[in-house]
Design brief:
The complex is a heterodimer.
Chain A: H1 3-7, H2 19-34, H3 51-64, H4 78-90, H5 111-122, E1 128-132, H6 136-139, H7 146-150, E2 155-160, H8 165-169, E3 172-175, E4 184-189, E5 192-196, H9 209-216, H10 223-230, H11 245-255, E6 257-259, H12 262-268, H13 278-281, H14 285-294, E7 303-307, H15 321-325, E8 333-334, E9 339-341, H16 343-349, E10 361-368, E11 371-379, E12 387-391, E13 397-400, E14 403-406, E15 418-419, E16 422-423, E17 426-428, E18 430-438, E19 441-442, E20 457-459, H17 460-465, H18 468-471, E21 476-478, E22 484-486, E23 504-509, H19 518-526, H20 533-538, E24 547-552, H21 570-573, E25 582-587, H22 596-600, E26 606-608, E27 614-616, H23 626-629, E28 637-638, E29 676-677, H24 683-696, H25 708-712, E30 718-722, H26 729-734, E31 739-740, E32 752-755, E33 757-759, H27 762-768
Helix pairs in contact in A: 2-3, 2-4, 3-27, 4-14
Chain B: H1 18-30, H2 35-61, H3 76-87, H4 89-100, H5 110-130, H6 158-191, H7 195-204, H8 212-245, H9 257-283, H10 292-322, H11 326-337, H12 341-353, H13 361-364, H14 367-394, H15 409-432, H16 438-448, H17 450-458
The chains are: A alpha+beta, B mainly alpha.
Chain lengths: 769, 459
């Protein structure tokens, strides 16, 4: 289950081979409703997730938003793409949501060209091979025969930041340094050209590959001069004609981006890539018929789907402990390579579906063609039954002076099948259960909300037709006389003077949070949060100050049946549905105004600041951990070991290595063993922001201070600001009808608000149709 | 002279005289220890050293050597702490409360019960210390004048109340115990022949002369201290229970805790006294003084406090359901039926069900049965604290945090180690200290002694 799938309002589970069938089904539904001709009669082999119905509802919704919709697919098959394009055309999306003039230049790699190169290498036509920042030996399917072909090339030169499998077979290795040490440019989309300048002096004796090539070409200018000259283009319409290039260049470098005319970019740089005309993209009726005919029906065989993980990706930085320790958004597993299966399938096969410290995972052997891989299996509710998911990007070689060792996992790139020169990311497969057990570490072992109001969500129709009381009711608690009272009325404590001065807080929009985990790594980096490794994660000792809770819906959840008073079957509520809905919820210290942690500390090491922070004084902490026990959110993190010196963390903690120690943020102290730590709301950034404002002699502008999590969030789901600033976004968010506090009934009065998630679920689609 | 009813069972059996009592009590101190003492002592010392090793390892490497985690931040450490404190309740109760109530049967058992209290509280006090992440900063929990910008402790914190409660209890118990020992030390001093022991016991006995004035003062001080110690018996465990009761965690946040903890403490304390004395009387030949009747009295206390504890368990369970609070209800249901059901049912069996056998006189008066059941209670009371601490924490408000606790060898080593240290101290006590309050015991010989009772009866 992908990030996209888990965030979809409606998700239909299908087998990879049936993607084309579903594209055709959607095409035909749209065609039927808009009076066009259907093509073929596609149907699914085993539609156990009601996909046909969902597709028909989607077609209605799409037509309702004609010209404002888009249909996309991730298929590599040109036939499927043809059908999707035709659907978009019926929906009049070309020219509105689809822009064929400003093409993106990403994903331009061509497997066909690589295959051609390999065949030329095999026939001895290639005498020298330059490999730049790539590891084809690792990332090409073994069946393409790169290794054998490379043996026939006389001169092989690798430009690489780090040694890898390919550099190991090259004659020459040219260390290029880190990209942050180098100049560069890129043209990801349209006329936008981005510029990269070095942010640090070269640490090692390296030279970027562009400089090397210029030098070998006998060109004595540096790459910087080359770039400078290359982008000395005539001023565009947006540019002020009186500004000379030198100052325009400075702006480019300063902003990191420059707008060129598309033509200039295309002419000068990517002349070979002319934007495709609409007529080429949109197929004719005849070609759709042809494409539809080429799309085969699904089969009932087991299938394997190869996917890229959010953190590990294609494995370029698989050696980075931050990425290994970032939990997978859905499975929450860290530090491991595993196969995923639907828990219902696993139960049938007698595999362990539970995860936890002492619940060892079962193992299977996945057979794809002639290849096979032995992997532990992790349950993934929502995965189409009859499929196995395997991540790419693992098992990369780590080449050191001592030799080659494999990073965690198996290399799934090697087993990818190739058909018609195109690499296929799914295949039919078989699997054998192995009589082995494997320890898997995950950061969350209970998957459901157990019927509690934790991640508050509602449907779009409920949201639109009913008031707040219906979908985000105010929490009341019975007083000593049994009368329901608002929480404010039942307060044991005196309020802090929270209405004076600043009062920092967060608003987290559960609607826009996609669960990716960028905030988690950003927080690790900003706050010097230690990485603790698989064994410690397995002992439930992750140090992350912010975590993302992932909840599956359960069939036994009483709210789903509309009767919350029925007897609860807690055991059943722990079990996620076969095809559940998913919710993500970032949780960090809630900076409670009545913090339970503050009252229990015997030495007053955690206290409330005048500005609404619940602050930790590391120096004063003696480590009784009482605060952590008494935290309803369990966001406090204890330094179980001296992570910066303990032998268990030598290969994990950056502070134990002279080079990686440079990642430590000098503005944040590295905590010692035996003290408690937790989210500080990036107090160092707040302090810096306050000083900046003071120097400028102005009040703090809303949005000028960002926490690491809010700054890194790709969907702006996290908003930081001053709740006492009447114009701040966080204040208006807090007053929003969707706003609520997590565990409000405990009465701790947090400074973090959550915004109710609104899901445009299938019933809504039905009603609006 | 006070007379006692003839049908009341004698507290001192056999044909004893004042001198015979002195002889019987001083025998272990003056004679040589037998083979069994050496065997048991060696085992205790080895276990104790293993525990000390584990403690040093913890201090050297970090609390990470234990099985604790982000969800369960206290487990065996605080379980052991509360268990030992609970055990430490019987001594003072016996010597102070029973003194005020003029219960003569306490005289045979108060000395060793108090010793047990002191050692148990020492073991208990160890845990709040070593469970700290930075034990070298432990002195910060005391409200000492300082130069850190005059930093003060947090008087809102129940942990701080613990510091005061435990330290007060320990010092009062120690003084009480020691005052009682003075006349008996003097007796040993007067009988000692070897110069070293004569010297040692004269220092220990503070120059006790045994004149009437000294005895009057002795009695007065005992009464005053008993008055001081009695509220402590109730306050210490009430305050310990507030560590939990004042928190927000379902399963901890319970107003029933103070009385329930105090009853539980007396329950476990008497069970431990029972365990120790049943062995001591045999090994040190004190069957005439620590009689079946003494055992029966203690068993009565055990069955009553055990029943109070049982009622508390059931009312907790009922209230959690009756409250209608989702988290509260689940916390208790989870105790009984969740992943830690075995701990809950061990607790229920050992604390509520098996002690009910003491309603039968035959069981109550059987030494073997008393011993076995007292072991059950010791186990059950350990599980009670484990259940309260771990099963409340391991599944609290947000299911995403739920998890389990798995002890490491260090957790186990430290727990066993404290038992080793405890027995080392107790065995040393039994060799060098008078295990019975011999001088006090003499005061009841003529009223409750077997032979004198028979004489009175015959008169």
């Amino acid at each position: 289950m992908s990030t996209t799938g888990s965030n979809a309002d409606v998700r239909g589970a299908i087998k990879p081979s049936e993607q084309g069938v579903v594209a055709l089904m959607l095409h035909n539904e749209v065609a039927k409703l808009s009076g066009s001709a259907s093509v073929g009669s596609p149907s699914l082999v085993n539609d156990d997730n009601n996909v046909a119905y969902k597709v028909s509802q989607a077609a209605k919704d799409l037509l309702n938003s004609k010209g404002k919709s888009i249909v996309v697919c991730g298929s590599n098959d040109p036939n499927v793409q043809h059908v999707v394009n035709a659907t978009n055309q019926m929906l009049s999306n070309y020219g509105s949501t689809i822009d064929t003039t400003n093409a993106t230049h990403l994903r331009k790699g061509s497997e066909v060209s690589v295959a051609e190169l390999i065949s030329r290498m095999n026939s001895g036509q290639v005498s020298a091979l330059l490999v730049i920042d790539a590891d084809p030996l690792y990332s090409l399917p073994a069946s393409m025969g790169f290794e054998a072909a490379a043996g026939k090339v006389k001169t092989k030169i690798a430009f690489a930041e780090k040694p890898n499998s390919t550099t190991a077979i090259c004659n020459y290795i040219c260390p290029t340094g880190h990209y942050l040490e180098n100049w560069n440019d890129a043209n990801p989309v349209g006329g936008e050209v981005s510029f990269a300048q070095p942010v640090i002096n070269k640490i090692y004796n390296t030279r970027q590959w562009q400089d090397s090539l210029l030098n070998w070409m006998g060109n004595d200018q540096s790459y910087y001069d080359y770039l400078h000259k290359a982008w000395n283009l005539p001023a565009t319409a947006q540019d002020d004609p009186s500004v000379v290039f030198a100052s325009r260049w400075n702006t480019y470098i300063h902003d990191g981006v420059g707008m060129m005319t598309t033509a200039a970019v295309v002419d000068d740089v990517v002349a070979s890539e002319t934007p495709e005309a609409e007529s080429e993209v949109v197929p004719t009726n005849a070609s759709i018929e042809q494409a539809a005919a080429a799309i085969g029906a699904g089969s009932s065989d087991w299938e394997v789907d190869f996917y890229l993980k959010t953190a590990i990706g294609a494995g370029n930085d698989a050696g980075n402990p931050w990425l290994q320790e970032l939990p997978d958004p859905v499975t929450k597993v860290v530090w491991d390579h595993y196969a995923t299966m639907n828990p219902a399938d696993m139960k049938e096969a007698g595999l362990n579906t539970m995860m936890g410290e002492q619940q060892r995972a079962g193992m299977i052997r996945v057979n794809v063609g002639d290849n096979s891989m032995e992997l532990p299996v992790v349950a993934l509710p929502g995965q189409k039954r009859g499929t196995v998911g395997v991540a790419l990007g693992y098992g990369k070689a780590k080449v050191t002076e001592e030799g080659v060792e494999r990073l965690i996992g198996k290399n799934a790139f090697a087993v990818l099948p190739v058909s018609n020169g195109v690499i296929q990311y799914s295949a039919s497969c078989t699997y054998d259960k192995l009589e082995m057990r494997y320890n898997i570490a995950s950061t969350q072992s209970t998957d459901t909300m157990m019927g509690r109001k934790i991640l508050n969500e509602t449907t779009l129709s409920d949201f639109e037709s009913n008031g707040k009381d219906h979908w985000n009711p105010e929490i009341t608690v019975a007083d000593a006389y049994g009368k329901q009272q608002a929480l404010d009325k039942l307060d044991l404590w005196n309020d802090h003077a929270i209405d004076l001065g600043h009062r920092w807080g967060l608003s987290i929009d559960l609607n826009t949070c996609i669960g990716c985990g960028a905030c988690v790594t950003a927080c690790h980096s900003e706050n010097n949060v230690p990485v603790v490794g698989k064994d410690e994660v397995n002992r439930m000792r992750t140090m992350s100050w912010i975590r993302i809770d992932r909840y599956y819906s359960s069939d036994a959840d009483p709210e789903l049946h509309g009767d919350i008073n029925q007897d609860k079957d807690y055991d059943a509520m722990e079990v996620p549905s076969e095809y559940p809905e998913i919710g993500f919820m970032p949780v960090m210290c809630q900076h409670c105004n009545h913090a339970p942690c503050e009252t229990v500390c015997p030495v007053a090491a955690t206290t409330h600041s005048d500005e609404g922070f619940n602050q930790m004084t590391y120096n004063r902490c003696i480590g009784t951990r009482y605060c952590a026990n008494n935290c309803p959110y369990k966001v406090r993190r204890f330094n179980w070991f001296n992570y910066v010196a303990d032998r268990k963390f030598t290969n994990l903690n950056p502070a134990q290595d002279d080079l990686s120690r440079m990642v430590l943020n000098p503005d944040v102290v590295v905590r010692s063993r035996g003290v408690m730590e937790k989210c500080s709301l990036c107090v160092q950034r707040v302090q810096a922001g306050k000083l900046d404002a003071k120097k400028a002699g102005e009040p703090i502008k809303d949005g000028s201070i960002q926490t690491a999590c809010s700054a890194s969030c790709p969907t702006n789901a996290i908003t930081f600001g001053d709740i006492n600033d009447t114009g701040s976004k966080v204040r208006s968010d807090a007053k929003n009808d969707r706003a609520y506090h997590l565990l409000e009934e405990v009465g701790v009065k947090p400074n973090v608000w959550y915004q109710t998630k609104v899901r445009n679920s299938i019933e809504t689609a039905d009603q609006t149709a | 002279m006070q007379k006692e009813s003839a049908i009341r069972e004698p507290l001192i059996l056999g044909d004893k005289t004042y001198h015979q009592i002195t002889e019987d009590v001083c025998a272990p101190v003056e004679g040589k220890a037998n083979k069994y003492w050496y065997i048991v002592f060696s085992i205790a010392v080895i276990v104790a050293l293993w525990g000390v090793g584990c403690i040093l390892y913890t201090i050297g490497r970090g609390i990470g050597t234990w099985g604790l985690n982000t969800t369960v931040d206290w487990a065996w450490d605080i379980t052991n702490f509360v268990w030992w404190v609970g055990i430490g309740h019987a001594g003072t109760l016996i010597s102070a409360v029973l003194l005020l109530f003029r219960q003569k049967w306490r005289m045979a058992i108060n000395r060793s019960a108090e010793a047990m209290t002191i050692f148990a509280v020492m073991m208990a006090a160890l845990f709040p210390g070593i469970h700290m992440g930075r034990i070298w900063m432990a002195y910060w929990v005391f409200p000492l004048p300082n130069q850190f910008g005059s930093l003060w402790v947090n008087f809102n914190s129940p942990l701080l109340w613990d510091v005061f409660a435990i330290s007060t209890y320990f010092s009062v118990s120690l003084v009480f115990w020691y005052i009682g020992l003075i006349p008996d030390f003097a007796t040993i001093r007067d009988r000692a022949v070897k110069p070293v022991s004569k010297m040692a016991y004269s220092v220990l006995s503070f120059g006790w002369t045994g004149n009437a004035k000294a005895w009057i003062r002795f009695e007065e001080v005992s009464l005053v201290l008993a008055g001081l110690a009695t509220p402590l018996v109730f306050s210490v465990h009430s305050i310990v229970s507030m560590d939990f009761a004042t928190s927000v965690i379902p399963g901890w946040h319970t107003t029933i805790f103070p009385p329930y903890f105090v009853a539980g403490a007396i329950f476990s304390g008497f069970a431990m006294v029972q365990t120790l004395l049943l062995i001591t009387r045999k090994v040190l030949n004190l069957e005439s003084y620590i009689t079946v009747k003494h055992g029966e009295y203690m068993n009565i206390v055990i069955v009553i406090t055990g029943s109070i504890v049982g009622v508390a368990y059931l009312s907790e369970l009922f209230i959690s359901w009756y409250s209608g609070v989702e988290y509260e209800g689940y916390a208790f249901l989870n105790r009984a039926t969740g992943p830690y059901w075995w701990a809950y049912w061990s607790m229920m069996t050992c604390n509520v069900i098996t002690p009910q056998l003491f309603w039968f006189k035959k069981v109550r008066r059987s030494l073997m049965a008393s011993f076995i059941l007292s072991i059950f209670v010791n186990i059950g009371m350990w599980f009670e604290r484990f259940v309260i601490i771990v099963t409340s924490l391991h599944r609290d408000f947000l299911p995403s945090n739920w998890g389990m606790f798995h002890p490491t060898f260090v957790d186990i080593g430290i727990f066993l180690g404290t038992i080793g240290i405890f027995f080392t101290l107790f065995l040393l006590f039994s060799r060098f200290f008078p295990v019975l309050a011999l001088n006090e015991l003499k005061s009841i010989l003529k009223s409750s002694g077997d032979n004198y009772k028979k004489q009175h009866h015959n008169e």
